[in-house]
Amino acid sequence: MTIETFFYIFIVFWFVVAVVSFFSLFKVAAPYGRYAPSGLTRTIDNKLGWVIMESPAVFVFAASFLLGKYTQSLTALVFLVMWETHYIQRTFIYPFTLRTKDKRMPFTILMPAFFFNIINGALNGSYVFTVSGGYTNEWLTDPRFIVGFALFVIGFIINRLSDRILRNLRTPEETGYKIPQGGLFQWISCPNYLGEIIEWTGWAIATWSIAGLAFAVWTAANLIPRALSHHKWYHKHFPDYPPERKALLPGIW
After folding, report:
1. Most buried pick, 35, 68, 70, 114, via CB within 10 A?
2. Beta-bridge partners for 105
């Protein structure tokens, strides 16, 4: 069996798992953050957990580039930079900006995320740098790349600005939750999730790949149910929560 054949067989399975996860998360919120059950014994420091669970995305994708067949074009380098910009920030910068005190991450969250990032990094890296047959430099002027790259950047900016607003809600000594204000929080409860969905939708378009599409589907499958859970949680815990806010799409949903 060639790597291309295995890739396409596995990607079908990966889509199925994403759909199953999507419907499962409507019934049970992923048990981390405000939904983490008390009394868990198998936990790790929250910041260290972030680094461990996200790091495969950095290193597996980079390895795919180094071992890939089609890495000589400027386009391949651009895709490498796009991916690593997100994940280096997410792995080695974001965790240390969190204003959390003595928070712990359960291994039931860390381990699935760790293995997801291995698989997702391998699927996207192997497609972009091997299975695709390569991208020419002319791809950088293709409308699909231009639109996808623009969405990727817009989503990244929305995600980062929203995370900064959330981070500044509390001082380093505080541990409680507050109603976020400013930015897209004026219209929706979870602009950080919206930004990430836009970002990886942009990646899927820019690479025009089934691996990118799978990642975009996975991102939506994880974050849409969580955004709706957050929205309900805010209304339940804050009687003065702005009634005009939607969960994920301004004025719609």
Report:
1. 68
2. 44
3-state helix, strand, coil in the chain (%, to 5): 70, 5, 25
Using an 8 Å Cβ cutoff, are 93 and 161 in contact? no
Q: Does the predicted model carry a pTM greater than 0.90?
A: yes
Nearest to 185 by CA among 200, 163, 202, 157: 163
- Cα–Cα distance, 62 to 121 (Å, whole number): 9
φ and ψ at residue 41, rounded to 5 degrees: -100, -30
Tens digits of per-residue pLDDT, 144-159? 999 999 999 999 999 9
**SS3 at position 179:** coil
Name the amino acid, one letter, at 219: T
Q: 163-183 pLDDT, tens per residue?
A: 999 988 877 677 778 999 999
195/197 Cα distance (integer angstroms): 5
Q: Are 62 and 80 in contact (CB under 8 A)?
A: yes
What are the pLDDT digits (tens) for 38-51?
666 688 998 999 99
Residue 15 CB neighbour total at 10 angstroms: 16
Q: How far is CA 47 from CA 12, 19, 27, 133, 199, in A?
A: 33, 29, 28, 38, 23
Give me the sign of the Cα torsion angle 54, 55, 56, 61: positive
What element of type H or E holds 44?
A: strand 43-45
How many angstroms from the chain centroid is the CA of residue 250? 20
Q: What pLDDT sits at residue 224?
A: 96
When pLDDT is cut at 50, 70 and 90, the band that residue 98 belongs to is: confident
